[in-house]
């Protein structure tokens, strides 16, 4: 794991999600993005497993990075500041199923749902870090923020 901070976008794997989205956005014909289509494209490219039972560090960090990007968009109106391609996106449509998908990944991480070998790798790595408290707090923030949006979208 190449990480220089506790947030998902402060890691090599998180930036893999940014690179994927930059390429994905380049293919869009409009300035609108559907979260469900992003998730499906990420599944096809191996950012997520076939099911939630397939636990992997990369899948977990992908979910956290996608959540961070989405929350950044909700809070700032921008998807990601460092790349010009992201300025093309003026809206992100998120359906209930997509938000549930993200929340499920994040809560499985928070609740330390184990992988086949025992402890979930992402939890094992971070619990041994001096940033454990910050990392857990950020994870909880992402969960709460996406859940808030999910409740808002139901109204």
Supply database-style keywords.
4% strand, 6 helices, two-stranded parallel sheet, 2 strands, 155 residues, globular, mainly alpha
Architecture overview:
- The chain is mostly helical and 155 residues long.
- It is 59% helix and 4% strand.
- The protein is built from 6 helices and 2 strands.
- The chain has helices at 12-27, 35-44, 57-76, 96-110, 121-127, 132-154; strands spanning 32-34, 91-93.
- The chain has a two-stranded parallel sheet with strand order 1-2.
- Helix 1 (12-27) crosses helix 3 and helix 3 (57-76) packs across helix 4.
- The N and C termini lie far apart (40 Å).
- The mean pLDDT is 90.
Task: Give helix and strand order, one letter per element, not per position.
Answer: HEHHEHHH
Share in β-strands: under 5%
Radius of gyration of CA atoms, rounded to a whole number: 15 Å
What is the tally of beta strands? 2
Uncertain stretches: none
- The helix content, as a percent range, equals 55-70%
Largest sheet: 2 strands, parallel
So what's the overall shape?
globular
Averaged pLDDT: 90
Please give the count of helices: 6
- Oligomeric status: single chain
Side-by-side strand order of the widest sheet? 1-2
- What is the CA-CA span between the terminal residues? 40 Å
Structural class, judged by helices and strands? Answer: mainly alpha
